[in-house]
Structures are given as C-alpha cells and as structure tokens.
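Researcher: Structure prediction, please.
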Amino acid sequence: MKLLKQLTAIQGASSDESKIAKFILTYIDKNKADWKVQPTIYAGDQFQDNIILVFGKPRTAIYAHIDTIGFSVSYDNQLVKIGGPDIEDGMQLVGSDSQGKIETELMLIEQENARPIYKCVFPRTIDRGTILTYKPNFRETDTTVQSPYLDNRLGVWSALRIAETLENGAIVFGTYEEHGGNSVGFCAKFLFDIYNVRQALISDITWVTDHVQPGHGVAISMRDSMLPRRTYLNKIIDLAKKSKIDFQLEVESAGGSDGSSLQKSDLLIDWCFIGAAEDNVHTPNEIVAKYDIMSMVELYRYLMRKL
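Model: Predicted structure follows.
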C-alpha cells in the first residue's frame, strides 16, 4: 500500500489542496500509459485544484474529494478548526510558515461556562493563517491500515485503482468537501453539459457502527443527512447483489459528502455514496479493514461497467 501511504502524508486541508492535486496529476502522468484506456484530463487554473478524468463515453462519474480536515492558526497560536476534526489534547500537528517547518502538539484548554480553547505548544508565534494537519503516521497489518486522513485519501486511492481498468466513465478529484463543499457543483455541471453525465458514485469513507462492521464488505449508504433517489439506489443495490461482492447497507441520520452538494445543486443528477467504513473517524488513528478496501474497489469496477 505504498501509494496510500504517500497520499496520506501529503498536506491538503480544505482550501490548501494544491500539493495533493499536483501529486495526483504527476502520478497520473507517470502511470496512465499502463491503463486500459487513456483519459482526457481536465485540470489547470480554470479548474482550480480539481481534476477531472474522462474515459471513453462516460455515463457515470466517480467523485473522490482530495481535501482533509485540519486547523488554521489564529492569534497567539490559537487554533481554528477546518472541517470537523475530533479534538484530543496532545495531538501531533505539522505544517510550515515563513520561518520554517513546524511540528507541534495541540493543547486543549477547558473553560468554565465557555467553549474550550485550542492552542499550539510551540516556542514562537506561528504566522497567522498557517494551516496545520495531523502528523503522518501510517500503520499496516495483515488485515488493516491505520493512518490520519484515510478519509478521504483512501477514496482517492480507490479511484486511482479503478482508473487502471476503466473504459467508460469519469473520475472527479474534488476540493473543499470537508469545509462546506465548493467544487462538485462546477465539476458536475461541466460533465453534464459536455458529456451528458447524469449519474454519480461517491468514493468516500463512512463510519463503523453497531450495524456496519469492519471486515464485512463495503458500505452502500441508503441515506445520511441527504436522500439519494430511490430508483437509482435500488438499481445499485440490485447490481451489488448480482455481483456477489460482499457489501453492507447503511442508514444514517447525519453526515454528508459530495453527494450532498450534488443534491443541493440545480442539476438532476443521481448519486449514491459507496465506501469502506472506518473507526476513529476524523482522528489521527483512522482504521479500515483491508477486506473492505478491496471489496470497495471490486464493486466500483463492477458498477462502472453496468450502470
């Protein structure tokens, strides 16, 4: 899982995705000659840090967001959340500012009758606006991978694996998902207008719960805070059953993804979230079963042929 380890080590919090976008483009350039179909690549300033790959005659697009949660440094080394990181005293954070590299830890200061304060433990004042992310710490066993930012570098990894054999379809590596969404509406309209793509699959990571357990296959989300159109959802579930690939059905009342942005857009695009489940969500210790990762890749490959 060398590629996944590399992906999780690259900083790319929401609004700061340029380094991870550059890495993905370099990887595509080096490896696309070995893919079954050579994609048309849309990237550059007019797409900000988003990347769109189009293979053959696309009917369905895969969306995998490349940004992560993190922190902005405010005044006097205080921290402001980017997205929804889970806070724990002593978390190791890294970044850099005009004075050099930064390796620090988070200090949680509880206040009576007030919100807690988050600060950096660092010997100097860090430049205002500096973005800090979890320190890379990739761990692998025979059955699991554990690391900061499996959400959603694992979704990106899966999309790159699918690209190897994809004949007809599109892949969108999007930005800003963890902090309010931004790019999906633009990318979806681009594919809608140019290629008439009206179906989407969301390659992202969901939660381990009492009813979605590690090692039992990829999760197909029947709903979170949003509701995919039932006709499309039923079609995907029927195809998943025919595939004989292990999967689990998820029903949640909260959470969201790039699918939320699609549903809120003015485009009539069907979408469904399909992803492996992780434990220790939005912490430096996210963990996913390898079996679920491989079933995720296999089911995406099957669905992209059939949808």
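Model: The first helix runs from residue 2 to 9.
Researcher: Thanks, that helps.
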